Amino acid sequence: MSIDSSDVKEYSDERDMPRRTRLGLKWRLLLFVFVILLAGFNGTAYLRISEGYETRRTFLLERAELALNTLSETITTPLWYLNNQSVERAIDSAIELRDVKRIILVGNDGLNVIRENVRSAAVINADSYQVLTEKLYWEENDENGQVKKTHLADLTMEIALTQADEYLSAAIWNTIISYSVIMIVLMAVFWAFVHKLTGPLEQMAGYLRYIGSNRSAGHVKELVIPYQSEQNEIGQLARSLERIRLHSVELLDLRSNLESKVNEQTHELLEARDLAEAASEAKSNFLANVTHELRTPLNAVLGMAELLKSTNLDKSQKEYTDLIVNSGDALLVLIGDLLDMAQLEKKTLELKKAPFQLTNITTGLRRNFAESLSISKSELIVRNDFSEENWFKGDLRRIKQVLFALISNAIKFTQDGKIAVTVSMNNIPERGWSLTMTVEDTGIGISQEDQDKLFDHFMQVEGDLTRRFAGMGTGLALVSSLVEMMDGKISVQSEKGKGSTFTVILPLDLSNVQADNKTDDVVVEKASEASMNRKLNVLVAEDNPVNQMLLLKILEQAGHKVFATANGKEAVHAVRNDLFDIVLMDIQMPEMDGLTAHRLIRTIEGAKGKIPVVAVTANTLDKDIERYTEEGFDGFIGKPVNPQALLSVMAKLCGEGGITAEKIIAEVAHREEISGKNLDEDEQKAEAIIREIQDAMGLPLLDEVQWNETSQAIGEDTLVNLMVEVPDELDKYAANIKELSQAENLDALKKEAHALKGLAANSALSRLARVGSLISIAAGQGENPVDFVEELAPVNLDSKQALYKKLTG
User: Fold this and answer.
1) What is the rounded radius of gyration, in angstroms, for the C-alpha atoms of the chain?
2) Tens digits of residue pLDDT in 82-101
3) How many CB atoms lie within 10 A of CB 156?
4) Has this prediction a pTM greater than 0.70?
5) Within 13 Å of residue 796, how many CA atoms lie on the same side as its CB?
6) Are the beta carbons of 357 and 517 closer than 8 angstroms?
7) Residue 51 CB coordination number (10 Å)
8) Residue 618 burial (CB < 10 Å; 0-12/13-18/19+)?
9) What is residue 216's predicted lDDT score, i.e. its pLDDT?
10) Which one of 515, 681, 749, 759 is most buried, counting C-beta atoms within 10 A?
11) pLDDT of 793 over the 70 cut
């Protein structure tokens, strides 16, 4: 079945056209031709009628002038001789001429009417008239023979242009009738021509609209486009339309296929979303890793420089060391700014509001900037305009970050001048409390043009200033973003060469809760003093040799005894086998990371499992610190390590009143001494379990004697090949044992532990075989050996490491 023009007729109807093109091409062509013909006919008719009218009018006037001349010649002589009767007869005779309406003969004085003759309206009635006048003279010779003219009278003749008017009227009607007939004939002929021309065009337009509005590929496929065989413009248009139809069919087929792929596309979009989220997470991890990688060598540089400063240096060496420290501190600030900016862009930076007093903002400002003020030879003036009694709620760290950045910027661009810092608090009705911080300097100033781009990221005001004053242009951009995040406002007033004034206004809320109001400086100072009163046994878990040496030097100079490990696994082993007061744990380490090591330490029974553990890491993002707190770390130190901050944290945790391993052991021993005589059966079982575990821990991870005997019996290569798959099998047994213990399926647990014991024993893994045996025996006695199962994971890990070392050594 095919679709022809009758099926798409409705689509070629003019009512289907947009309003501005309501008039179709056919009618527009007809209207155009009609206007052209009408204008042409009107012009031709006007010229033709005007020419005929003028011809007849001229003929009438010429004939009237001839009659007027004849009459004047006739009456001149009688008028001279005063023969009035002859004059009257001549006038009466002339009045009878056709088209003559009136004849008037007036005397030479212009007042005396000699004769007037008028024909009645019944005889002659015309719409237009023409008046002809001639003066009558009598000529004679005077005494000198000269011709003498005597004015006798004025002869006036009024002529009716009736014939001309009649012609005009008849010509107009004849023209209208004849031209109307001609136009009707021409329009009819042209209508047929236009219809022949535009009919196919309108039909093509209807087909095109049908194709465009149809949503069924089947209908468009059945459409038959006419005129394709004609070798003219219509044929070309039809063939082009056919190509459009074919393309439309392809598009409609694609559209129908798209509907069937919606679910698939949706699924892909969901996967893409998951990938995007994973990419975002990877980006965060990458940022953390980059931060770690930057801070780790920077930690070594700054730490070693600080240690170098404490040695005997000459003046030049001291200057070089100070330059290293200052440059490192600047780089550290830049890293922090970049991290903050990255978090702001990702909108992951969160404000932590807590109670504080305004004295926390300004305390220690001069001490913090003493060195940079000394270099710039400038004076810092601090003015406090607030009450010290009120407590407010806000993010003190970010507020101080904003103020410190503005002061640093002022010091950088002020040489041998003054920097005035004013901190005030105002209570505005209906708006609440607002903190105003103003930093005014006498530095180089900023032009009005540069002020417009002052807070843009990575922008500096001038190229020459870029060379004179170091920096990447991140400080003020970060300040502006932080102020905006705290719903505040920042403004600048400056004139080049006359200094600058930065003003920050931040809204704050009153706090009903008070907090510890000690400044960080006071805490560090007091804690550091406390740390010197007691020498500690410190375990350092750090994989980087330089950073490890740095921590050793800092702690040894403070008088502490230090034991270092290179990974989390060694740290856990050290805690199990030795006594420490505190553990300084790096997070990113090979073999076992700090988080895993911390979890395993907390599983150790007794006092050792409660030893203070401090995270020492370059991962300093807020979310990282929160994670370490949630994991149960007792403290946090960011890299680069500040020796004073490190010692203060240690003093806080292990100083007077702090928690130490000795105190925990003493408390446990005292508790056991009091209750030892009354231990019930469960406590005795617990002690037996502990002894069993301790006995197992006393066994070697890998029995070298058994290994060597087996190697000699079957060959070294054969033994190595047999042991390659053992670690994976051990992991499977350990995982199954943990699941069976949690499900309290003791029969299956006994069998699985027995199989583990056999595999471990055959592999010379004595300690692991002993733990498997203890689990199997306990399960066989109808008890769920939870304590033994908890020890299985670290023992299995240590055993695998020993086996790997043997296989690769």
Assistant:
1) 58
2) 888 888 888 888 887 777 88
3) 16
4) no
5) 23
6) yes
7) 10
8) buried
9) 65
10) 749
11) yes
